[in-house]
Recover the amino acids of this structure.
């Protein structure tokens, strides 16, 4: 009797060990699937009904998740293509509207009518800028080629971009001060980096309540930040959302400048974020360090 009980305990112990081994194997397969982004289904060696059902349910859940992901990617691609087509189609009628506005302005003699037409022109120009951002975002979002990453001196590169926009900055009475202790070299795509910096400068032109400070630092990442004083605290968690506007009462629509900056940063393996500190809004860009 004792021998039978002992044999039963040994068999049970072996079964438990085999069960644990199978659970560990399932866990390793799930980790490998996640790390290598494969679609390999979960397999078992021990023919246990409970574990077979478990593996079957896991595989079904994984299959459903893959299907949802494929549908989401397909829908996102369709939306991007729609945005690209829409932004292109909007350009032609807007160009015609602006052309007729110019002709009408030349023929008007009444000062009141001229003033109202100039207001209409101003709004048409704003719409044109928004459409251009719309088109630029769709262009970068649908771009299939990989970024051409090369060594770039961040401080010198930012200085060049700022210099090109000095006339606009002077018109708005905004000065940009660049602070850098040591040279910082990033691994980045020149064209993408130009777009990021230009969009950050334009954001400062539209919303800054003071001069702008740009800091350049490089430790684990090659980073730079645009900071300026703003009238009130903003929602830094939502600033990079497309068309986000902090103050709904403002006539100026939210744009895509920061969304484009975030998109391009991530395409180069970096990040974009925002923070609020002592009345100052900081937009932080981090890129791979060379």
């Amino acid at each position: 009797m004792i021998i039978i009980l002992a044999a039963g305990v040994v068999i049970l112990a072996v079964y438990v060990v085999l069960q644990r081994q199978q659970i560990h194997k399932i866990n390793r397969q799930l980790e490998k699937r996640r790390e290598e982004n494969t679609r390999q289904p979960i397999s078992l060696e021990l023919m246990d009904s409970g574990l077979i059902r478990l593996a079957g349910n896991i595989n079904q859940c994984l299959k459903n998740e893959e299907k949802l992901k494929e549908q989401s990617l397909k829908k996102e691609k369709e939306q991007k293509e729609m945005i690209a087509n829409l932004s292109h189609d909007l350009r032609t009628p807007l160009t015609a509207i602006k052309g007729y506005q110019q002709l009408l302005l030349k023929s008007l003699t009444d000062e009141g009518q001229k003033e109202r037409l100039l207001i209409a022109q101003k709004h048409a120009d704003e719409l044109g800028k928004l459409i251009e951002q719309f088109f630029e975002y769709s262009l970068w979002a649908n771009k299939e080629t990989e970024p051409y990453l090369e060594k770039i001196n961040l401080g010198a590169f930012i200085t060049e971009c700022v210099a090109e926009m000095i006339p606009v900055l002077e018109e708005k009475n905004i000065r940009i001060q660049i602070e850098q202790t040591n040279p910082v070299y990033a691994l980045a795509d020149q064209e993408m980096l130009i777009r990021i910096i230009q969009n950050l400068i334009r954001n400062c032109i539209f919303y800054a309540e003071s001069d702008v400070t740009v800091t350049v630092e490089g430790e684990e990442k090659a980073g730079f930040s645009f900071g300026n004083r703003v009238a009130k605290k903003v929602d830094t968690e939502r600033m990079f959302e497309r068309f986000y506007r902090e103050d709904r009462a403002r006539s100026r629509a939210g744009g895509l400048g920061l969304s484009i900056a975030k998109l391009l940063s991530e395409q180069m393996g970096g990040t974009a974020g925002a923070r609020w500190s002592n009345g100052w809004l900081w937009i932080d860009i981090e890129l791979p360090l060379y």
